[in-house]
Amino acid sequence: MEMSKAELASAAAVTGGQTQELMGAEVLVKALQAEGVKYVWGYPGGAVLYIYDAFYKQDTIQHVLVRHEQAAVHAADGYARATGDVGVALVTSGPGLTNAVTGIATAYMDSIPMVIISGQVPTAAIGLDAFQECDTVGITRPIVKHNFLVKDPKDLALTMKKAFHIARSGRPGPVVVDVPKDVSFKKVTYSGYPEKVEMRSYNPVRKGHGGQIRKALQLLLNAKRPYIYTGGGVLLGNATNELRTLVDMLGYPVTNTLMGLGAYPASDRKFLGMLGMHGTIEANNAMQNCDVLLAVGARFDDRVIGNPKHFAQNERKIIHIDIDPSSISKRVKVDIPIVGDVKDVLTELISMIRESTTRPDAGALASWWDTIEGWRSKDCLKYDRGNKDVIKPQRVIETLWNMTKDTDTYITSDVGQHQMWAAQYYRFDEPRRWINSGGLGTMGVGIPYAMGIKLAKPDSEVFCVTGEGSVQMCIQELSTCLQYNTPIKIVSLNNRYLGMVRQWQEIEYSGRYSHSYMDALPNFVKLAEAYGHVGMLIERPQDVEPALREARKLKDRTVFMDFRTDPTENVFPMVKAGMGITEMLLGSEDL
Ligand SMILES: Cc1cc2nc3c(=O)[nH]c(=O)nc-3n(C[C@H](O)[C@H](O)[C@H](O)COP(=O)(O)OP(=O)(O)OC[C@H]3O[C@@H](n4cnc5c(N)ncnc54)[C@H](O)[C@@H]3O)c2cc1C
Ligand SMILES: Cc1ncc(C[n+]2csc(CCOP(=O)(O)OP(=O)(O)O)c2C)c(N)n1
Ligand SMILES: [Mg+2]
Prior knowledge:
22 strands, binds magnesium ion, globular, single chain, binds thiamine diphosphate
């Protein structure tokens, strides 16, 4: 059942233009239809049964029954990251909501547009320690862009309109709508979904200040060592074309944060790789040594700038484009703040460059590029490629990239070493193809992200790169993958360790491996089979490529590939805690 947004919206209209008497739950479903929602990931319970009943009576929205509420939110979040639409999840009161908290916080930290509908005990019971009651508004307040408790069914339609508007506008983020059971049960006169919404206190700025953009232009065109540092905001603002145009016009070096990978094509020479704690030498050195830095939709995260005192040692002028004024000069003081939507601001900047008679200083730029090429020639991502005894995790990712680079492919990951290797060795050339948790760093997102994406993109290949630790945090969703026929390919880099923890213990705790070795792992091949899928065990380097090839052939099946990788491998480069971003460890010889 594939419905267009227009068909969905018409399902939401009031029959014959008349008003209708509807239950709150039915109004809620109409609201979702009017918003063009195609999928809702959820899990039922007492407080949401009227809402589930309303779902039963409609056939435009597909509800996906997950196996744990955390995964409902992650799946809807993955869908939102890949499509740009608002992801929607539905959970019951009490434990349903508390299970969803990790998912909500994950989306919040990465600014992902979502609406999470939670059931609540009846209004009269709120505050009375009712069965499955929890203070949803209180619990979620620090991890949402906004939240609502709907006390009257008459407010439902407008509240939903506001929730979607807040979630997707400005700096996106998750919005929780808490619906008491009686509010979903009571009847109300429905006269259609509001066409627009006005909130006097909420008006995000889209257009940047012309004077500030002009100042930025002057700085940029007069730079001797310019650098463009871009982040998740470019993807969230769908501004990759504008970014590419800008970089091509100027010929300046560019880097992406972990959240921004794909905003600029990784295979282009002007791309220096990811920067930060596990960034490349050339990306980090350029950050430290540039004289003008253009930050675009990136928030100077601590994993990106390292020790702030070290970062401040070199003088550079900073221009920062961000839609959220509170993101500007939060961690690093900037010289030219530009509050606005990245697409609007870049468009204006590009047209000013076109009109300007000033051109970048070609001589200075050539010598800056020479310096950068010197750094790049150190080839900091080299590893023991020819090893025939043990599978190097980097090799799995490189092989995957080589095989899939000409196909529309989505890569999700969990959190740990495998995540960093995926970010370093898979070259993302397109936006919204790299889906991972950066800000919260939530283990367990990989499978739910992949299944959320596969539903929306059935013709694309979806791989989940994971570790044997992370994958067990939402492994139950293999069952959901079977029920809803979302065939994903799981690439588990099984090093028998909580590898990222082990790496820190090796480097920062003198090799005291406290509780980072995981014994008694399940037989993942049998586990995959028990869930109705295909399992594969890959132990030798020469089997990596054939295994991936075979798995890809099984288009309609979910395949779990258990790659036994080198348990001692570490992620390099690495900036240790408290160090500056150019003080990198490049390999085990530096330990
Ligand atoms: C194990 C691990 C290791 C990590 N190592 C690294 C690392 O080495 N390097 C690295 O980069 N990260 C790393 N991270 C991720 C890091 O923690 C941060 O999540 C990441 O650096 C933040 O990326 P960002 O600055 O692009 O911000 P995001 O969180 O993507 O924020 C986006 C910014 O853009 C703004 N914005 C949103 N929409 C718009 C719009 N339309 N217009 C304008 N602005 C907009 C927002 O207000 C926000 O300020 C690591 C994470 C983990 C879990
Ligand atoms: C929910 C959660 N708990 C704990 C952590 C801390 N943590 C970060 S990476 C990591 C190890 C991950 O192990 P695995 O999935 O096997 O990946 P590897 O690092 O071995 O590739 C841990 C425990 C986390 N990020 N998320
Ligand atoms: Mg591991």
